[in-house]
Amino acid sequence: MSKVNLNDLKARIEAADVYALAKRTPCQLAPKLSLEYGRNIWLKREDLQDVFSFKIRGAANRIAGLTDAEKAKGICAASAGNHAQGMAAAAAHYNTKAVIFMPITTPMIKVHAVQAAGAETRLIGESYDEACDAAINFSNESGAVFIHPFDELDVISGQGTVGKEILEQMPRTPDAIYVCTGGGGLVSGLGTWVKAVSPTTKIIAVEPEGAATLKTSLEAGEPTPLNKVDSFADGVAVKLIGKNTLEISKSVVDECILVTNDEICAAVKDVFEATRTVVEPAGALALAGLIKHAREGSAPSGDCVVTISGANVNFDRIGHIVERAELGAGEEMLFAANIPEQAGAFLNFVRALGHRAVTEFNYRFAPTETAHVLVGIKTKSSDERADVVSAMDAQGISVTDLSEDRLAKRHLRHMVGGRASPDVEEVIYRFEFPERPGALTDFLVNLDSRWNISLFHYRNHGSSTGHVLCGFQVPNDDVKALEESLSKTGYPMSPETENLAYDYFLRA
Fold it and tell me: Rounded CA gap, 345 and 352, in Å?
């Protein structure tokens, strides 16, 4: 039995004060998708809000209810993007100061949008949880009102107006509504209204396989933190669902399904073809769930609505999304560098890069005096390329700019490789690095210098976590000692030495 009174929550949704800032977004039929999947598919276009996300609803309703004394003290929040933008816009409208705490891995497009709305941003920590702790401490010290992104009833009530609008706009009662789900604010608010008015309509929560916080907690019967969260769909990358949202979801959610990142990317493409809008991965999550259900034969045959929840996609992520859906690529400065094949040379090279954002890193050991490295980095302008070359020259590193070399950009970057010496055992590991300046340097500094790196590959995918493939030469077969050294870096790792692809292309 829910601890939240659902009748009271429905009344809160009815009275929610959102339309000073939020739009009544359309619920549009998608003819091509409907034809392809044999049922009427409707898109609830929350990507058309001024902040490109439904989050403006909860933020507007919560801040509208503050007293004058509370508004005078200001508000604070923690968010990786969409809640932050909603809070900033609502705070500006109601003339109260907003301080938003965001992880340092937050895409800058979201940080700049929050700042443009007049809010102060503070980048702290590498995860939402660290930023949230900082926001709560700030609230306790300053008196500013902390507003949770999904677990407050006024926020949930604001999000619930999405469900109210859907039932008002649909020509017929929908058979099912598929809802993108992270912390649960949208699915619990929407579900409360819909189940009260149309109890036969199924509410289906859709989550990424790597961030199944609702499904995990429903199975456990209580809020249960995930050990690991895949941040690809960053708008729903939540480690722990809310207490209120879980209790409400127990009463209103009929089913919870999981989709892969590839399925999400394909849905982003489908939304684009239907609307000519590029939505963020979380924005296409619900459609990915419906398509999966339809292909499995589990989706209702009548009218199905999906929430298109947001379009705050970082530009540099679009290439990765396209690549996952259709093998696309992106742009940056690409250069070749020659470094001495000796211990410590790799660390010196990384230090010479400074805090520049690396998009790709290809290196393979060769039994010669000089190692060849192919690197891609982000640059603000073409003029910065000369600065990179100068920085490398200062360290005695010879660099060749390949940014305009079509062969290098289209082919060579994906073909760099080789095989290590067969005289020394090599082991391969896959790592997850926080996507922040200095992460690679920290890794190399903490790594025991006796281990020679024989392979290194990294490519930026625009998310908060970088994926790295790294090889090490292990004299005397002392793998245990290597793994003890690697554990000190603090970065998650998985062995890949027995991977079949490694056998085919990389093993000596």
Answer: 11
pLDDT at 504: 58
Does residue 82 sit in helix, strand or coil?
helix
Q: Where are the alpha helices (DSSP H) in 117-184?
A: 128-142, 153-169
Cβ contact 338:370 at 8 Å: yes
Q: What is the pLDDT of residue 77?
A: 96
For residues 231 and 124, membership in a common domain is answered with no
Residue 439 CA to residue 466 CA, distance in Å, equals 9
Q: Which conformational region is residue 421 in: left (phi greater than 0), alpha (psi within -120 to 50 degrees), or beta? A: beta
CA distances from 161 to 34, 46, 186, 412 (A): 25, 11, 9, 52
CB 198 within 8 A of CB 229: no
Pairing mode, if any, of strands 145-146 and 75-78?
parallel
Do 98 and 45 share a domain, yes or no? no
% helix / strand / coil in the chain, to the nearest 5?
Answer: 45, 20, 35
Question: Smallest Cα–Cα separation from 24: which of 61, 51, 54, 58?
Answer: 54
Segment-wise mean pLDDT, segments of 10 residues, the chain, 508 residues:
84 97 97 95 96 95 96 93 91 96 83 92 86 94 96 97 98 97 96 98 96 96 92 86 96 96 89 93 96 93 95 76 46 75 76 78 68 77 80 84 64 54 81 78 75 74 71 84 86 85 62
Residues labelled as active-site residues: 55, 309
359 and 473 part of one domain:
yes
CA distance 83 to 105: 16
Tell me: do 260 and 337 sit in the same domain: no
Domain boundary among 120, 146, 172: 146
Give the domain-ending residue among 298, 325, 352: 325
